[in-house]
Structures are given as structure tokens and as C-alpha cells.
Amino acid sequence: MKKLILVAALFIATSATMQAQLLQIGAKAGVNFANLSGTDIQTDAITSYHAGLVAEIKLLDRFSIQPELLYSTQGATYKNALGEFKDELGYLSIPVMAKIYLSDAFSLEVGPQASFLLSQKNDFDVKDAKTFDFALAAGLGFKITKNIFVQGRYGLGLTEISKEAKAKNSVFQLSAGFMF
């Protein structure tokens, strides 16, 4: 009986160690440089933020899938004869990145991102704002240590943010994070 308990404990410990190597969970936050593209109106970028949870699922030695759950603010400012106006959109973003390791520390990341509009702060009335945004994202990652990382990413919106405006989100993100 003691041998059976010892074997079971060893099996559980080995499984937990293997699972820890295949899946890592962490948190990340950073700065957004967001603007709108595809619009006739001249817009300027806003500086905002993103923060949330990240996971890395190792599939091969140099290939992982990295799903994320982020709160991200995006938008733009524009000027006209009446003054300067700012539009800030708060999204729940779900990027799913394919992560290809170029070395032990550097990775290339590319994948789709679905975002759901949660809030909108603006100085002007945007009618018929769409509540769903789809984008493609690509960037680079660097592991400083086994647990600490930095990332740079560009996201190009593929859907228009409003039924009235022909504008799409465009955002450059710089992030830092920690894997547990």
C-alpha cells in the first residue's frame, strides 16, 4: 500500500511538472499608440493603455499559441474649426497569437484579434458605433528572464468602428509582463 501511494504521488508530481512546462499563465500591461485609418478626416494618435491576462501553450520546441484577454483603449483625436475632439474606445480584446521562437529569447508573433466595445468616451457624438472589432496583429517578443517579457505589436483593424464613419482602428502596443 505504501508503494502504491508513493508511485501515485510521484506520478502526480511528474504530471504537474510536465503541465507547468506546457502551459504558463501571466499578466501584462502597457501603452497604446492608437489612431484611426481609412478615414477622410485627418486624425491624430492618442496615447492610452492596455492590461490583462496572457497564457502561453507550448506545442513544439519553437512554437506556442498565446491567447490573451485584455482591456485596451483605442481611438483618435481630430481638429476642425470648432476645436479639438477626442474619441476613446474601451475594448475587451482577445488576441490569439501564433508565437514562433527565433531563438531562446526572441519570438515572432502573429494572429487574429477579436474585440468587443465596452465603453466610449468622446467629445463628439458618434452615432451607430459598432460593438465588434476584428483585427490582425503582428509583433516581436523578448524574454528578459524565464518569467519576465516585453513585447511590441501592431494591430490593424479590418472592420469599421461605426456605420457612419469609414474608419478602422490602428494601434501600436508596447507591453511588459510576468509569467507565473
Q: Describe it for me?
A:
Pfam families: OMP_b-brl_2 (PF13568). This is PorT family protein. The chain is mainly β and 180 residues long. The protein has one domain: Porin, CATH 2.40.160.20. The chain is built from 1 helix and 9 strands; from the N terminus they run αβββββββββ. It starts with a helix and ends with a strand. The relative contact order is 0.20. About 4% of the residues have low confidence.
Query: How would you characterize the largest beta sheet?
Result: 8 strands, antiparallel, barrel
Give the class from helix and strand content and strand pairing.
mainly beta
Contiguous low-pLDDT stretches (5 residues minimum) are 13-19
Instruction: Determine the N-to-C terminus distance.
Output: 36 Å
InterPro entries: Beta-barrel_OMP_2, OMP/PagP_B-barrel
Keywords: Signal
Organism: Flavobacterium frigoritolerans
Pfam family, one: OMP_b-brl_2
